Amino acid sequence: MGLTLTEVQNLLAKENLLREFITPDTWTLEAPMQHIFRHLSYNSKDVDVETLFFCKGNHFKKSYLEDALTHGLQIYIAEKDYEVAAPLAIIVTDIRKALAVLSMAFYDYPQEKLTLIGITGTKGKTTVAYFTKEILAESTGQKTALLSTMNTTLDGETYFKSALTTPESLDLYRMMDEAVKNGMTHLIMEVSSQAYKVDRVYGLTFDLGVFLNISPDHIGPIEHPTFEDYFYCKRQLVNHSKQVIVYREMDHFNLIAEMAKQNNIPLITYGGQDADYQVTPTDSLHFKLTSSADQLKLDGTYEIKHAGDFNKNNGAAAAITASLVGANQTAIQSGLKKALVPGRMNLLLKPNGAHIYIDYAHNYLSMQAILAFAKKDHGGKVIVVTGSAGGKAESRREDIGKAIGELADVVYLTTDDPDHEDPKAIANQILRGINQTLYRRDLTINYEFDRSQAIVQAVKAAEVDDAVIIAGKGTEIFLTIAGNKQPYEGDYQIVERILREQ
Question: Is 194 helix (H, G, I), strand (E, B) or coil?
Fold first, then answer.
């Protein structure tokens, strides 16, 4: 495994990324020496004489490069000349695109040895990814890798915590290569808007793209300046897939359909009566798929472990996805029946009959869907415990508040990974959203910034037929405060403890 300097030159030139090579003696458009790179890195501590070091990121500092040179680095690649004592600098027009192009070549294009499924949308990505993974585990004999927001598996069975929804391109191709070496034939991955915004998936084509829904999210100074920018990045998945599956009732569906038609990309829809496959809930955990043509032979009834009509739509998306990559209906029905997604509508029951749901819901679309389900299926109060993460997606805060104002009866505003922000200031932004939609009834609003205590109070207050929604953290057992991950008992574990003690 490795790349020669001449190969690097040719790959960059082909993508119009190469500006020049700079040595202490000359500037040139041709590789000025012979060199083989046996390692790629963007970590200044992880370099040696055979490393090609990428100076990437908005917060990259010259001192990082100087540190790398003290560890034996000879050659770096960057968007500018850092004027350091290096034998060679490779200057490019776009460092992130260069990272993607060279990474896939370094690992010998592992994406071409896998069936690639990319899933995007504002909510439901992880659920659809897990549902599809369980189905394909049945049909491929555990030869399906998964890259999700929560966990990653490269051998189909052993999971570890994910650092990013979509990894940096260098890490992505390294993981793909490991999956191929582990005998995997399929790879399911969530594709975030940031993956396209910062070119983590530059040059990558998916065998199948799945677009679940869209609503304002990740909007703020750190991520996307506007909804238009967020949606533009999301929909790039359509342009980079050989075939797409789309929820027929999603906002701006016509634009997605127009894109697919313009690029001659086959499109299959699911959802209501205008969709290719109609999804009909039959009870709390079952749904039917019907189609006038049923070319995929999917008509029938399916069972899932997660409540809510939105999860039935997620099940339908997974069923169609798996069918298009080779799974038969028996494997689909069996896989969906077994699939369990950590932190997604996990249910615990209070002895008096109150239902307590633990979920990662952290934006308007996911919060609105869960609260609407609770309002429909439970006759009592809808009680919510939530906050919002600090340092990102500030628009989420008022949007969460709007969903609460529309549907909840009691809310406990609390801490959720505030990082360097004041949890009370975040809660007040959620409150502004609540006040924008609170037009029809009273809503009891509580402030409790000890998250454990907020959960205790909500669960103890729940009466017969009430539904408690504990949103945001799911199964995570840490709180991010002032830049550090601090131990946290966990939402699910706290509820279990409360119920044991009663």
Answer: helix
**CA–CA distance, 216 with 123 (Å, rounded to integer):** 11
Closest C-alpha among 462, 460, 454 to residue 491: 454
Q: How far is CA 133 from CA 184, 321, 326, 338, in A?
A: 12, 10, 13, 11
Note the Cα 158 to chain centre separation in Å.
19
Rg (CA), the chain: 24
Question: Tens digits of per-residue pLDDT, 345-368?
Answer: 888 889 999 999 998 888 888 899
- State how far the Cα of 417 lies from the Cα of 486, in Å rounded to an integer: 10
For residue 66, the surrounding DSSP H or E stretch is: helix 62-70
List of long-range contacts for 247-250, beta carbons under 8 Å, 24+ apart:
247/121, 247/211, 247/212, 247/213, 247/271, 247/313, 247/317, 248/272, 248/274, 248/275, 248/276, 249/275, 250/121, 250/211, 250/212, 250/213, 250/214
Q: Which of 186, 187, 139 is nearest to 336 (CA)?
A: 139
Task: Output the six-digit token pair for 430.
Answer: 């959620």
Q: What's the chain's length in residues? A: 502
Which DSSP state fits 200? Answer: T
Phi-psi region of 118 (alpha: psi -120 to 50; beta: other; left: phi over 0): beta
**Distance set, CA 29 to CA 22, 50, 86, 103 (Å):** 9, 22, 17, 21
Q: Give how far the C-alpha of residue 203 lies from the chain's centroid of Cα atoms, to the nearest Å.
A: 19
Of residues 142 and 376, more confidently modeled:
142
pTM confidence score: 0.81
User: From the centroid of its chain, how far is CA 178?
Assistant: 21
| Distance between CA atoms of residues 355 and 468, nearest Å | 6
Beta strands in 96-150 (DSSP E): 115-120, 144-147
Distance CA 80, CA 65 (A): 12
Instruction: Starting at the earlier edge strand, list the strands of the sheet with 382-386.
Output: 346-349, 355-359, 467-471, 382-386, 410-413, 444-447
What are the tens digits of pLDDT across the range 178-211?
999 999 999 999 999 999 999 999 999 999 999 9
3-state helix, strand, coil in the chain (%, to 5): 35, 25, 40
